[in-house]
Design a protein that fits this description.
alpha/beta; 6-stranded mixed beta sheet; 6 strands; globular
Length: 246
């Protein structure tokens, strides 16, 4: 049964949770969620559990993002699978995965690489290749217009995966370069261990990079039924709180 949420009550709860950790002015930042669509995660997509997780994250987008939305990305393996799905909003969050993702996105039920979608998210939020692009003479002849430079946006990106990746070196390279540029981006990795697996790589990069955190979700079906206060307290660890205060 699909989870229903009083979004107004949940956004108020987030405000109170932030106040408890010393954040009295709501941070303004763009919200992104990156969702694994590899084959091992298909059951959770099909039974609506990942939509329930997005539902529980919706108040974060409504609170932090000036446009009251979450930009949703999906990935499996390879550059071609890294995809921006669109925005999750107050009007479309119900059934979001079924309506927009299942068997509709590139790389559906593939393997697992993290780096390409990390790169795509950094581009979308203006931190990589954000320069203006000229259409060129022939492009203009056919009505193509210049692309304006992407504005750099302070962003919180929540990265949801249930599996280990095959591109550890490239993932470290992307994160190392982001940290060296001092991108105003924080990556919060959620390792969904429904099968009891460990996420040694996520644990390692959470310690290795200052703008990267990791939280383990041992049972996602149980997690999405927790109270707002419990979810906020679990995700708002000391490092993320420190970044939000910065």
């Amino acid at each position: 049964m699909a989870l229903t949420l009083n979004l107004q009550k949940s956004t108020t709860s987030l405000t109170l949770s932030l106040q408890k950790v010393g954040i009295h002015k709501m941070p303004v930042l763009d919200m992104g969620v990156v969702l694994d669509v590899s084959g091992s995660f298909s059951d959770e997509h099909a039974d609506g559990t990942t939509t329930d997780l997005l539902t529980r994250l919706a108040p974060w987008g409504l609170s932090f993002d000036p446009d009251k939305k979450i930009d949703v990305f999906t990935f499996s393996n390879g550059a071609a699978s890294a995809h921006m799905v669109g925005s999750l909003t107050e009007s479309n969050y119900q059934g979001y995965v079924r309506n927009n993702i299942i068997e509709k996105v590139p790389g559906w039920c593939g393997a697992t690489d993290y780096s390409y979608v990390l790169e795509l998210a950094l581009k979308e939020f203006g931190w990589v290749d954000g320069a203006a692009k000229k259409a060129g003479m022939f492009g203009r002849m056919f009505g193509k217009k210049d692309e304006p430079a992407k504005q750099k946006k302070r962003s919180l990106i929540i990265f949801i995966t249930d599996g280990d990746n095959n591109d550890k070196d490239r993932t470290r390279k992307i994160l190392r370069e982001s940290e060296a540029r001092k991108d105003e981006v924080y990556f919060l990795f959620l390792g969904v261990a429904n099968g009891g697996g460990a996420f040694h790589f996520l644990d390692a990069i959470g310690d290795e990079f200052g703008n990267t955190g990791y939280r383990n979700i041992a049972n996602m079906r149980k997690f999405v039924r927790m109270s707002d206060e419990e979810i906020n307290a679990y995700l708002l660890d000391d490092e993320l709180v420190g970044w939000l205060k910065g």
